[in-house]
């Protein structure tokens, strides 16, 4: 039986355009998605996207301190369920904000596992879950990419690193990024990393 997602942003309705004179702190004052500017709507001109890593992966830490955010969707000890909870929160947030697109790096979706096979299996589960969420909400993937810069193994480069053991995970990330990010409605594939 499928788990019903929790509501994480309780009491917050969908954010709407209310005009510049509104006193509602959670309303758009100038952005009216359906207003035409020239031949296109504002929504067509301004393709807003939620950056998954900034919005749902940031810990609030800085170079001088520990993480300061304690999100309710990051409490489950199981990494796959925790990632699904985070995705539930993300799609709730994007739906309420009215963001038509999102973007992510592969391991923004789920923590890497101790080995490549399990990492890829985890990622595939989350990509399948993302497809379900996209279908339910109409939110599209603007772009997806492989993170070839955060892990210490990439400190001397990713694809161009002369050490073979560094190139294997890089190649795997690129391959699975291309395969897994083939989500319906995806606008772009962006491969980002150190040269």
Description:
This protein is of the alpha/beta class and about 200 residues long. It has a single domain, classed as TIM Barrel (Alpha-Beta Barrel), CATH 3.20.20.150. It is built from six helices and eight strands, in the order E-E-H-E-H-H-E-H-H-E-E-H-E-E. It has helices spanning about 40-45, 50-55, 80-95, 105-110, 115-135, 165-180, and strands spanning about 35, 40, 50, 100-105, 140-145, 145-150, 190, 190-195. The strands form three sheets. A four-stranded parallel sheet has the order 3-4-5-7. A two-stranded antiparallel sheet has the order 1-2. The protein has a two-stranded parallel sheet with strand order 6-8. A hairpin with a 2-residue loop joins strand 1 and strand 2 (about 40). Helix 3 (about 80-95) packs parallel to helix 5 and helix 5 packs parallel to helix 6. The longest helix is centred in the middle third of the chain and has 22 residues, at about 115-135.
Give the tally of β-strands: 8
- The arrangement of helices and strands along the chain is EEHEHHEHHEEHEE
| End-to-end gap | 45 Å
Q: Kindly state the mean pLDDT as a whole number?
A: 83
Tell me the helix content.
Answer: 25-40%
Question: What is the assigned CATH homologous superfamily?
Answer: Divalent-metal-dependent TIM barrel enzymes
CATH class: Alpha Beta
Shape: globular
What's the number of domains?
1
> In which order are the strands of the major sheet placed?
3-4-5-7
CATH topology: TIM Barrel
Q: What is the count of DSSP helices, taking H or I runs of 4+ residues?
A: 6
Approximate strand percentage = 5-15%
> Which spans have pLDDT < 50 for at least 5 consecutive residues?
188-195
**If you compute it from the alpha carbons, what radius of gyration comes out, rounded to the nearest whole angstrom?**
19 Å
Largest sheet: 4 strands, parallel
Shape-level CATH architecture: Alpha-Beta Barrel
Structural class: alpha/beta
């Amino acid at each position: 039986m499928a788990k019903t997602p929790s509501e994480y942003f309780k009491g917050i309705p969908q954010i709407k355009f209310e005009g510049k004179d509104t006193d509602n702190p959670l309303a758009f004052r100038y952005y009216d998605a359906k207003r035409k500017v020239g031949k296109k709507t504002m929504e067509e001109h301004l393709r807003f996207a939620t950056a998954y890593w900034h919005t749902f992966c940031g810990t609030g830490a800085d170079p001088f301190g520990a993480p300061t955010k304690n999100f309710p969707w990051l409490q489950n000890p199981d990494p796959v369920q925790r990632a699904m909870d985070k995705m539930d929160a993300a799609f709730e947030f994007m739906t309420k904000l009215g963001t038509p697109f999102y973007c992510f790096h592969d391991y923004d979706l789920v923590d890497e596992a101790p080995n490549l096979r399990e990492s890829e299996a985890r990622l595939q589960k989350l990509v399948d879950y993302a497809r379900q969420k996209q279908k339910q909400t109409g939110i599209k993937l603007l772009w997806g990419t492989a993170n070839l810069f955060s892990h210490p193994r990439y400190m001397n480069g990713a694809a161009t690193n002369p050490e073979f053991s560094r190139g294997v995970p890089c190649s795997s990330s690129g391959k699975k990024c291309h395969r897994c990010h083939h989500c319906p409605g995806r606008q772009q594939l962006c491969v980002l990393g150190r040269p």
